[in-house]
Design brief:
Layout lengths: L7 E6 L6 E6 L14 H9 L19 H11 L24 H9 L19 H11 L12 E3 L2 E2 L5 H9 L19 H16 L13 E4 L4 E4 L5 E4 L4 E5 L17 E8 L7 H16 L3 E7 L2 E9 L2 E7 L5 E8 L5 H13 L2 E2 L10 H7 L7 H5 L6 E6 L8 E6 L4 E6 L4 E7 L6
Antiparallel strand pairs: 1-2, 3-4, 5-6, 6-14, 7-8, 8-9, 9-13, 10-11, 11-12, 12-13, 15-16, 16-17, 17-18
Helix pairs in contact: 1-6, 2-4, 2-6, 4-6
């Protein structure tokens, strides 16, 4: 798998609350937010809008907790609420005076009933903001109306319907504004990081722009391509990739129980195994399915068979248990892509099922290829100016480093320059047409 290049998708809201168009971008705003960071698209989007800025050293520090004052400023600005920085007056709280940089933002939020102080009358602007407080602030600022769930409702395993923030948690979960953590819980009392705060706002804006449609959690997942297995798809953040001799494995490890191998399912784990059967004996689709059903009946006794379409090709799903689904996609030239999915039984199961479903939804067929290490560079040069082969060509290299991105390009979109130390070449790549434009010896951008 190509290690250095992971493409992220960023959202351009062409007009507020109208429709959303997606375009590939490179996050270049902050050195500590690489292209493959899970919050890169959200951070880049709000940076371009002038909503967020970095520290004096140029970093954004996405993993640093956000305090109440800075979070409130970001939330207000991202929501399009105008704040008059010269609107000074009496102190809003004992610890928020008109000489503080955050005074206008807290004053505005108080006037709009977005925030209030604690029981002792203080606001505590430098105190870290937790998840529960953030959800309320983000939704109220964006004018979202939430409904009270029943008192006995279970929003997350650790969030019941009678908690004060349950309405905000319920809406956020329903719309995929926030996802469960690795143990299936919300853990609402934990500090929110700067990166996660920006992601919540980003998802909220998209949900509202799309008239309440839930956020597609795979929107900014990195694209991964495996020509030798004839597919490409999107990989969920925090999932690992294991390249075995005859299969690719996507694995969500159970960090709660310190899982060390995907081969034994754990409660909070999930995995997807891909194997390309070249079907060299030339079985017809009908014969292939008959053989499968005979094996499944022998091995499992009972199973459920479903016919569906994946990546534009006919496929069957053989379900053998609530946590075990297998898929067989019938590719051209009698090849069959075999996909085996399994996940543990826990409070995270529903979310893992959703992630696996999104991997399948994003699956695309690519012509199967097998390129040896001896002729990789020769093969790459043969693909120069061949549209639609750029991503597959980049995947041939294991050590690519993005040394520069021309965001304007040649009028058709961004141009990336990737350097391979192993082959001592630089590859010029145009994203919009998925094309290798040229390959030059040594590390250079002088094409």
């Amino acid at each position: 798998m190509r290690k250095a290049l992971i493409t992220v998708l960023s959202v351009l809201l062409l007009s507020q609350f109208s429709f959303v168009a997606f375009a590939q971008v490179t996050s270049g705003a902050f050195p500590d937010v690489p292209d493959d960071h899970k919050y890169a698209a959200a951070i880049e989007y709000f940076y371009e809008k002038g909503v967020i800025e970095g520290y004096t050293d140029g970093t954004f520090r996405p993993d640093q907790p956000a305090n109440r004052a800075e979070a409130l400023k970001i939330i207000l600005l991202s929501s399009g609420i105008s704040v008059d920085l010269n609107d000074l007056g009496e102190d809003v709280f004992p610890d928020v005076t008109n000489g503080d940089w955050f005074y206008p933002y807290i004053k505005k939020a108080t006037e709009l009933d977005i925030v209030d102080g604690y029981e002792d009358g203080y606001f505590r602007p430098i105190q870290n903001l937790n998840i529960a407080e953030t959800l309320k602030m983000v939704l109220l600022t964006n004018g979202v109306t939430v409904n009270d769930p029943s008192e006995n409702a279970i929003i997350f395993p650790d969030v019941k319907g009678d908690l004060w923030f349950a309405p905000y948690a319920a809406f956020s979960k329903e719309k995929n504004i926030i996802e469960p953590q690795g143990d299936g819980n919300l853990n609402a009392g934990r500090n929110i990081t700067r990166g996660e705060l920006v992601e919540l706002m980003y998802r909220t804006e998209i949900v509202l722009a799309n008239e309440g449609e839930p956020f597609d959690i795979s929107t900014n997942w990195p694209i991964v391509s495996y020509p030798e297995y004839a597919f490409k798809t999107k990989l969920p953040f925090d999932w690992k990739v294991i390249n075995n001799e005859d299969q690719i494995v996507f694995w969500h490890p159970d960090d709660v129980n310190h899982q060390s191998t995907y081969e034994v399912p754990y409660p909070f784990s999930g995995d997807i195994k891909f194997h390309l059967d070249h079907n060299e004996v030339g079985l017809t689709k009908t014969a292939y399915i008959q053989n499968l059903e005979m094996v499944y009946k022998s091995d499992f006794g009972t199973y459920q068979k479903n016919t569906l379409t994946i990546a534009g090709y006919e496929a069957i799903n053989l379900n053998v248990s609530p946590v075990h689904d297998d898929y067989y996609i019938f590719y051209p030239e009698n090849r069959v892509l075999q996909i085996y999915t399994s996940y543990g039984w826990s409070d995270l199961t529903e979310h893992l099922e959703t992630e696996i479903g999104k991997v399948l939804d994003n699956l695309q067929y690519i012509s199967p290829q097998s390129v040896s290490s001896n002729n990789i560079l020769s093969e790459a040069r043969n693909r120069i100016l061949v549209e639609g082969m750029g991503q597959q060509t980049l995947d041939l290299f294991d050590d690519l480093i993005n040394i520069e991105t021309d965001t304007i390009g040649v009028g058709t979109g961004p141009i990336d320059y990737f350097y391979s130390e192993e082959y001592d070449v630089t590859i010029k790549y145009e994203r919009s047409s998925d094309t290798i434009l040229d390959i030059q010896n040594s590390e250079t951008t002088a094409f």
